[in-house]
Amino acid sequence: MFAKVNGISLYYEEMGTGRPLLMVHGNGEDHTIFLEAAEVLSREYCVILIDSRSHGKSTGTAELHYQDMADDLSAFLIQKDLRDVIFYGFSDGGIIGLLLAQHNDRITDLVVSGANLTPEGVIQPARSLICFSAWATRDPKMILMTKEPQISTSELSCISARTLVLAGDHDLVCINETTQIAQSIPGAELRLLQGEDHGSYIVHSRKIAWILSAWLKQSV
Fold first, then answer.
1. Which residue from 117, 87, 80, 88 is spatially nearest to 104, judged by alpha carbons?
2. Whether pTM exceeds 0.85
3. Measured distance CA(16)–CA(38) in Å, rounded
4. How many domains is the chain partitioned into structurally?
5. What Rg, from alpha-carbon coordinates, does the chain have?
6. I need a labelling partner for 217 at 20 to 30 A (CA). Which of 7, 129, 137, 154 fits?
7. b vs e for 78-89, b when ≥16 Cβ sit within 10 Å of the residue's Cβ?
8. pLDDT digits over 197-213, tens only?
């Protein structure tokens, strides 16, 4: 299905019934990375898998900015009149979630995995690879990661949703950056997952479904 927002078309799929659970992928990916997790979560929730602009089947744009992506999803929530939303974002999807959840009463539970506040929050080897790829390909998705995000801790303090911040202990995001995110969101819980890297427990994995399901039951 497609939703028209902000002059573009966003592709999305729905699975299951119940409380809405919106899942947003990382850079260069699409909604299909969550199919295995959604199969589990759709037994309890209405899971909405969406392709960010310039990803998957959604409309491409010449430039990419995280705030534009967050604005797309804000318009989507309003258009579909979705409330009491659970938002789950991986990597770039987590960054989008941190922007979207500020002053947003439609999102009541927020979970982010492997998100960063600035480009410098990514470990140096990965940053070097991103910068080289951006230079070599001029791909807007790569260029985006060299300049953004630029999220302040004061902005994070505006998030009122119950929040879980996740990362692998071998993540591409620096542990101190992940810790800072959790410490800056009122009441947020931090979990560093042993033996996991940036996406090992997420991409085509049911592990994230079990983590989400257990945490959501605890937070009721």
1. 87
2. yes
3. 9
4. 1
5. 16
6. 154
7. eeeebeebbbbb
8. 999 999 999 999 999 99
